[in-house]
Design brief:
alpha+beta; 42% helix; 116 residues
């Protein structure tokens, strides 16, 4: 079986998420100026993964693998926030670390971020 290559991605979310979702608001007490984003990782392309979020995709085992927050509040992918990270091929562990790093970096820049 070939080794999977993972990518990090970011999806801009509607600012409604900040007012309508208390968990999102509590995770981002510093929010004030910039956009709301979701940061994730995938072995698909970011565009394929966004399609899965949009449709509420369920895998072959019957598990929903799309994030509710993205399904409800997504606007579009933000490649300018993640393209530089995906220049290097990453395994799952590296992508997990880079996803968290990107999320915290964006929070420090003033974005409201959801990641898990």
């Amino acid at each position: 079986m070939p080794k999977l290559i993972y990518q990090v991605y970011a999806v801009e979310l509607s600012k409604k998420v900040f007012t309508e979702n208390i968990k999102f608001r509590n995770a981002n007490p510093q929010f004030g100026v910039l956009e709301c984003v979701y940061v994730g990782m995938t072995s698909k392309t970011p565009a394929e993964r966004l399609r899965q979020h949009k449709t509420g995709y369920t895998n072959k085992k019957g598990y929903k693998i799309s994030a509710n927050i993205v399904q409800k509040y997504r606007i579009y992918l933000r490649p300018s926030l993640y393209d530089h990270i995906n220049l290097k091929q990453m395994n799952r562990q590296e992508a997990l670390k880079m996803k968290a790093k990107l999320a915290w970096d964006l929070r420090r820049e003033g974005y409201a971020v959801w990641f898990n």
